Amino acid sequence: MQIFRHIDEELRKVALLMQKHFQIKACPINQFVPLNLNYFDLHLRPGIVILSNRLFGPVTEQTIALAGVLQFIYLASRVHLGVWESSAAKEKPADSRLAYQFPVLVGDYLYGKFFTTLCDAGIVRYLAKLADLICSINRCGILSAKLSGAKLAEGKSLSSDIVRGETAELFACCTYLGADLGGAGDGDRQLMYDFGLHLGMSYGMLERGATIKQVDRYLTAAASLLERLPQNEDNNCLAKLLTLLTKENAIVQRMVV
Fold first, then answer.
1. Per-residue pLDDT tens for 128-168?
2. What pTM was estimated for this model as a whole?
3. CATH level 3 topology of 5-247
4. In degrees, to the nearest 5, what angle opens at C-alpha 134 toward C-alphas 230 and 207?
5. Which of 13, 28, 178, 205 satisfies CB 3.0 to 4.6 Å to 49 for a cystine?
6. Which residues touch 220 (CB under 8 Å, ≥6 apart)?
7. What are the domain boundaries of the chain?
C-alpha cells in the first residue's frame, strides 16, 4: 500500500477534486449507488497518470485534472455495470431505483463531470481520445455481458479483446496522456501507451481470475518497456507495481476504505 507514498500530495489533490463533485446538492452519490472502493480503485489510475507525467516533467493542475477525468470515466463505467440484470447472480435490490434508475443516472452524472473537468482544466484537446475510450469500454461491456459465464479461473476462454477494451485501454490512456502532459516526445509517448496497455492487460486478466502464469507475457513486456524509459523514482514506482502484481493477490481483495 506504500507504492504511491512519494506522490501522496498529488493523490490528495485528486481526491479533493473528486470529493467536490461527489456531492449532489447535500447528498453524496454513494447514498444512491454504493461505490465500495478499495485501495486500488481509489488510487491506481490517478497514480499512474501522475507517475507518467512525472517521468517527463513537473506535475501541474492540468495533471491533477486529467487524473480526475480518467477516474471519473473509470467510476462511471463501474457504476453502469451495477445495473441489475435478471440473469445476474446477485439478488435484485428491494428498491427498484437501486437496481436500474440510480446506477444509470449516477453513471451519466460522472461522465458529465469528466467533460466539465476537462473543459475547466483547458485540456479539451484530449476529448476525442477519451470519447473513443468510453466507446471502447461500453462496446466491450456489451460483449462481456454475453460471455458472463466465461471465467479464466475455470480454464475457459475470455476474449483478450474484451479485457483490452474494458480495462487495458483505460490504463493506456492514463500513461499516454500523462506522458503527453509531461512533455514526452512521440517515441516516448508510444512507449508509455504500450506499457499502459500491457499493465492493463495484466491487471484486467488478474481481476477476472487469471493466474500469474497466464499474464506473465504481459508483465514481462511491460517491464521491458520500462527499461527504455527515463530511469528515476517514478519509473521505479511503476516497476514495483509490476512486482506487486506478480507476488500478491491484492487485486481481488476487496479492501474497502
1. 999 999 989 988 887 777 666 445 444 444 578 899 999 99
2. 0.84
3. Farnesyl Diphosphate Synthase (1.10.600)
4. 70
5. 178
6. none
7. 5-247
